[in-house]
Design goal:
Number of strands of chain B: 1
Distance between the termini of chain B: 44 Å
CATH architecture of the largest domain in chain A: 3-Layer(aba) Sandwich
Radius of gyration of chain B: 20 Å
Helix content of chain B: over 70%
CATH class of the largest domain in chain A: Alpha Beta
Largest sheet of chain A: 6 strands, mixed
Strand order of the largest sheet of chain A: 6-7-8-3-9-10
Helix content of chain A: 25-40%
Number of strands of chain A: 14
CATH topology of the largest domain in chain A: Rossmann fold
Largest sheet of chain B: none
Number of domains of chain A: 3
Largest interface: A-B, 48 and 33 residues
Number of helices of chain B: 12
Oligomer: heterodimer
Number of domains of chain B: 1
Distance between the termini of chain A: 28 Å
Order of helices and strands of chain B: HHHHHHHHHHHHE
Shape of chain A: elongated
Radius of gyration of chain A: 24 Å
Strand content of chain B: under 5%
Number of helices of chain A: 11
């Protein structure tokens, strides 16, 4: 896919494939091209020349109406009609997706119950909180029982309770075998939910891996965190600093960024034993997806000469 | 046209009617504005009942038909519901037709009510039974034409209703003044009368004039042909311009100040 806006290339010749039942996350800084990619996939933007989207091996442009019925889309910001009630929004949505009146009624009751919205059925959408609106968006997306779900930052700006509700539902949908494409800024969420992660920067896909492989392949460092029983002397700190990339935090807590953790643990143990220093706590921290993400984006921007704060 | 398309268009029209009829800009520019304009035109002047009928019906039709269609796309762009529609199994043409039909029906209903009240109050006003048909055709064609004009103005890719309404008024008022509402086409010198052909309202007022006073310069057939011509022109312009500007409604968010993308050389 490629998408240009006058003199800007928002999506720059990207290509990826999602298997049925897979959960794929798109991560990227603001303006990376995530939402544009989703808009191209869902037919909001017309595909430019040499762009192609295939759903179950069928060209999206050949049968857009039939193929769009396979999608359920959950936007970041609620796009339900604010002057309509919850029921009116769902009824309109169901009719547009070609459901019969009886089917709409049946599905609405099931979904409102599932998303704990039954008591809001006749409430105007504009009176709902952001969390409730997002639950309504999920109901609207699932009403026609789509096989592919596209979620654009579904938990952004929600309170912790609503986040839990939305995440639990995503886990349930995964168990139901739905194919899910999700964009998010939340690395923990991506790590927990996704089978595969695409990292986008400046319209390009700069990584396409499982969360585990991303951590292993892209930033082979670990963090050793340890807490001393006593305060170290100036000389001892200097000595440690010369051996490791040491960062001191409060209450005698230190962190060492290590590229070879096993070797460093051995050196550290020798040093502590030789100096008769007791440690009260020790942890080997795995590389987080957030660190991988920042590393990748910085490297990509360094390569192209852009600043990344 | 397939039944699925017809169902979509009808659903979209119903949605547009139920959601936008009560919106502020529609009430102000569709109902209040023509009401006060008519009042200020009639008060203190000697105007025949025929002229009042032509003026009120033409202005109501013109203002109501251009009230809903310009506001729907800016509002739906702002509220993101347009994006939901475009990603749903609804075509771009169905979305536009849903707006045109809602706006046309709103205009026909309001103008018909006003016309019926007037005719009931002054039963001798209408020249012949055939005139009722001519009035209805005139009101209907003006409804379609006004809706298309409003939709055309809203092809500017903005989510600010006020931007569109300002532009709409800039276009509406000159068209109203050269539309034969205040001064009939037949009483003008030909050098000025030529200007009147640039306002679609002229042909509607001519049809109304033939129905009540029979002082029309143009025959009904000519007026209908001109109105159909204007409709064909506006329909084409709408299709071309909206197709061109629709992506720009969403591109602002995608290419905003935070964006750091590759620039084309």
């Amino acid at each position: 896919m490629i998408k240009t806006f006058e003199d800007l290339i928002a999506v720059n010749h990207i290509s990826f494939r999602i298997k049925e039942g897979e959960i794929v996350g798109i991560l990227g800084p603001n303006g990376a091209g995530k939402t544009t990619t989703i808009r191209l996939l869902t037919g909001v933007f017309e595909l430019e020349q040499n762009s192609r989207v295939e759903i179950y091996s069928e060209d999206l442009t050949k049968a857009p109406k039939r193929l769009k019925k396979l999608f359920g889309i959950v936007p970041e910001i609620s796009n339900a009609y604010s002057d309509y009630t919850v029921w009116q929004n769902l009824n309109f949505c169901g009719t547009i997706y070609g459901l019969s009146k009886a089917k709409i009624k049946e599905r609405v009751d099931i979904l409102l119950d599932r998303f704990e919205l039954s008591d809001k059925k006749y409430a105007k959408t504009k009176t709902l909180s952001k969390g409730l609106k997002q639950r309504l968006n999920l109901c609207m997306a699932l009403l026609h029982e789509p096989s592919i779900l596209i979620l654009d930052e579904p938990t952004s700006g929600l309170d912790p309770f609503s986040v839990t509700v939305v995440r639990n539902q995503i886990h349930k949908l995964r168990k139901e075998g739905k194919t899910i494409l999700i964009t998010t800024h939340n690395m923990q969420e991506a790590q927990q939910i996704c089978d595969r992660i695409l990292i986008m920067n400046r319209g390009n896909i700069i990584a396409d891996e499982t969360p585990d492989n991303l951590r292993k392949n892209f930033k082979p460092t670990s963090t050793l965190a340890f807490k001393m029983q006593d305060t170290l002397s100036y000389e001892q700190k200097e000595k440690l600093n010369s051996m490791f990339n040491l960062k001191e935090e409060n209450n005698n807590l230190f962190r060492v960024i290590s590229e070879n953790p096993l070797e460093d643990i051995s050196y550290l143990y020798d040093f502590l034993k030789k100096n008769n220093i007791q440690i009260t706590d020790f942890k080997l921290l795995e590389t987080t997806l957030e660190e991988v993400f920042i590393h990748l984006i910085k490297n990509d921007s360094k390569f192209t000469g852009d600043d990344v704060r | 046209m397939r039944s699925e398309s017809l169902r979509n268009i009808w659903m979209l029209s119903k949605k547009n009617m139920s959601l936008y009829v009560k919106r502020g800009p529609v009430l102000i520019f569709g109902l209040m504005f023509p009401f006060f304009l008519v009042i200020s035109w009639i008060l203190g002047r000697t105007i025949t009942i025929n002229q009042i009928f032509i003026g009120i019906v033409a202005m109501t039709s013109f203002f109501t038909s251009t009230a809903i269609s310009p506001v729907i796309l800016p509002i739906e762009t702002r509220e993101k519901s347009l994006e939901r529609l475009l990603s749903a199994p609804v075509s771009f043409n169905e979305i536009l037709l849903g707006i045109i039909i809602a706006s046309t029906l709103y205009s026909i209903i309001i103008t018909s009510i006003i016309s019926i009240i007037f005719i009931l109050l002054f039963p001798t006003l209408i020249a012949s039974p055939f005139s009722y048909i001519i009035i209805f055709i005139g009101i209907s064609l003006m409804g379609v034409l006004g809706s298309l004009l409003g939709l055309l103005v809203s092809s500017k890719p903005t989510d600010m209703t006020s931007d569109i309404m300002v532009l709409m008024n800039l276009i509406k008022f000159p068209l109203l003044f050269i539309g034969g509402v205040f001064i009939p086409l037949s009483s003008l010198p030909s050098s000025i009368a030529i200007l009147y052909f640039f306002s679609p309202l002229t042909f509607v007022t001519e049809m109304l004039r033939s129905s009540v006073a029979q002082t029309n310069l143009l025959s009904n057939e000519v007026s209908i042909l001109f109105l159909i011509g204007w409709i064909a022109l506006f329909l084409t312009l709408n299709y071309v311009l909206h197709r061109k500007t629709m992506p720009k409604r969403f591109s602002e968010a995608a290419s905003g100040p935070k964006m750091k993308t590759v620039r084309k050389k």
